[in-house]
Amino acid sequence: MASRRRLAGPAGVDRRQCRIAQPRAGAQPRTTGRLAVNAPVPPRALAPAPGAVLAVSGLGKEYRLYDSPRQRLKSLLTGGAHHRSHWALRDVNFELHRGQCMGLVGDNGAGKSSLLKLIAGTLQPTTGVVDRIGRVTAILELGAGFHPDFSGRDNLRFGGSLIGIDADGMARLEDEIIAFSELGAAIDRPVKTYSSGMVVRLAFALVTAVEPDVLIIDEALAVGDQHFQKKCVERITQFRENGCTILFCSHSQYHIRQLCNVALWLDGGRIRAMGATDGVLSAYEAHVRSQDQASAAADAGSQVPGQLAGLGALQSADTPPPPPQGSRGAIVAVSIADLGEGDPPMLRSRDLKVTVDASVLEGEQPHIGVMLEQSHGVGITSVATHVDGAAPVSLGNGLWRSTLTFPQLPLHSGQYVVSAYLFDSKGLVVYDQWYQYRHFLFDYPTPTPGLVRLPHSWS
Ligand SMILES: Nc1ncnc2c1ncn2[C@@H]1O[C@H](COP(=O)(O)OP(=O)(O)OP(=O)(O)O)[C@@H](O)[C@H]1O
User: Fold this and answer.
1) Residue 437 lies in domain
2) Is the CB–ligand 1 distance for residue 305 below 6 Å?
3) Which of 51, 227, 260, 415 could be disulfide-bonded to 375 (CB atoms 3.0-4.6 Å)?
């Protein structure tokens, strides 16, 4: 079922040993459409190392920018260079093995989507190679490949053929795909009558109907309602447990921490860090915080020192945020016991006791998480009921409560902030979050340098 065809939206390629670009030593630039394909000799072996299912070597992507359509036409007709060059990716190298799940993070414009499209094969590299083994399925622009005048069912058959599901395969899978999409009778209506959520459900159900060897997901969890998100995360988790290799790009650090064992941070088209998820995300979060503080300082005017401006911006978050739209649950209150007066208030107790109240739809069993940070954004700890084998207590009428206690809070004097999270029953989907909601001061009588007071002994 090898196929070189591409679906403009959800894309899939079913190939054994699929290679996107073959570099030739000393090759002259070859022009295909607008893209010059001139892959220099990559720094490493071309074939993935034993056990690797994906190898990216010396990968680069140049976009050509024209000032006007006229310049573009002139360039095509004369072959001359009438463009400005923008390198979205430069010299990207990594390998992924079977069962690895890699989260991709980076600022807007860092090159994440370009990298995923190059790996999926919907974009050609300017330099370097991508070597892949087995069936590669990409969930990029969900639903973009559907024809609006055809019914959902017709689109399934057409779209399925593009990702390597033949007529017999589709006959076997159709019922399951329609059931997952929950479209019911609407499956026989033209796609142009669907809401965007319905299109997304159909597209996700189709492209994940057959488990791939490599699954590429670009922000798929950001679309659709929470019920759909939950089903997506469960399916992705199942694939991961079965040994599928996953590349997952998301602005949700929570989902990356949940799903991925390695992470890659792209910065200005280059790899800034790659390795165990926690280390890479911590470094990336510190970078995001320093950017936030710099822009808060700029907003607050030059008379406010940088860090104080950042704190001011964080404290204004003490107003409860509105519940997320179409939500299956929402946090309704977050309180800290024994707070004094002042802004921020002083914690009068030695213990930190945080109570989170949440409301969820009937039949839901939620979980609750709490994150504690220094107020200028240095993380201290995150805990959650599902991780600790605990559960919130039902107060009736869909209301739930968890109280978290840190006895003898082992921190030094300083200003701290609490964030609260509401999760689904498996701790996979974030229903609601009150990020950096409650600030407080803590006073420890003996001033010593450091972040925490760890239990310790001398000998
Ligand atoms: N078709 C294109 N033509 C020209 N420039 C492009 C094109 N697609 C992307 N770019 C540029 O390449 C850079 C990387 O874009 P890309 O979409 O890969 O980044 P990203 O990390 O996915 O960003 P975001 O998080 O905002 O989606 C950006 O500067 C972008 O403007």
Assistant:
1) 324-442
2) no
3) 415
Residue 159 contacts residue 204 (beta carbons within 8 Å): no
pTM (predicted TM-score): 0.67
Q: Which residue has the tokens 């959800």?
A: 10
Residue 225 falls within a domain, yes or no? yes
Q: Is 282 in the pocket of ligand 1 (CB under 6 A)?
A: no
Partnered with residue 14 across adjacent β-strands are 135
Q: What is the C-alpha separation between 345 and 439, in angstroms, rounded?
A: 7
Cα 403 to chain centroid distance, Å, stands at 29
Q: Among candidates 287, 431, 410, which has minimal Cα distance to 352?
A: 410
Domain CATH for 51: 3.40.50.300
CA distance 8 to 122: 8
Report the alpha-carbon distance of residue 113 to residue 336 in Å, rounded. Answer: 41
Q: Is 148 in the pocket of ligand 1 (CB under 6 A)?
A: no
Q: What is the ipTM of this complex?
A: 0.97
What pLDDT, on a 0 to 100 scale, did the predictor assign at position 174? 94
In 301-405, where does DSSP find H-type helix?
306-315, 385-388
Statement to judge: residues 238 and 338 lie in one domain? no
Helix ranges (DSSP H) in 132-269: 152-162, 167-181, 196-207, 226-241, 253-259
Query: How far apart are the C-alpha atoms of 181 and 376, rounded to whole Å?
Result: 43
Count of structural domains within the chain? 2
Contact in structure between 127 and 59 (CB atoms under 8 Å):
yes
> Do residues 358 and 392 make contact, with C-beta atoms less than 8 angstroms apart?
yes
Structural tokens at position 74? 């002139």
Residue 207 Cα to ligand 1 midpoint, Å, equals 24
The mean-pLDDT minimum among 34-48, 58-72, 174-188 falls in 34-48
Q: Distance from the CA of 240 to the center of ligand 1, in angstroms?
A: 28
Tokens linked to 439: 């600030």
Pick from 35, 84, 113 the residue to mutate for probing ligand 1's pocket: most ligand atoms within 8 Å of its CB: 113
Signed CA dihedral, 228, 230, 235, 237: sign only? positive
The protein residue with its alpha carbon nearest to ligand 1, atom 28, reads 109
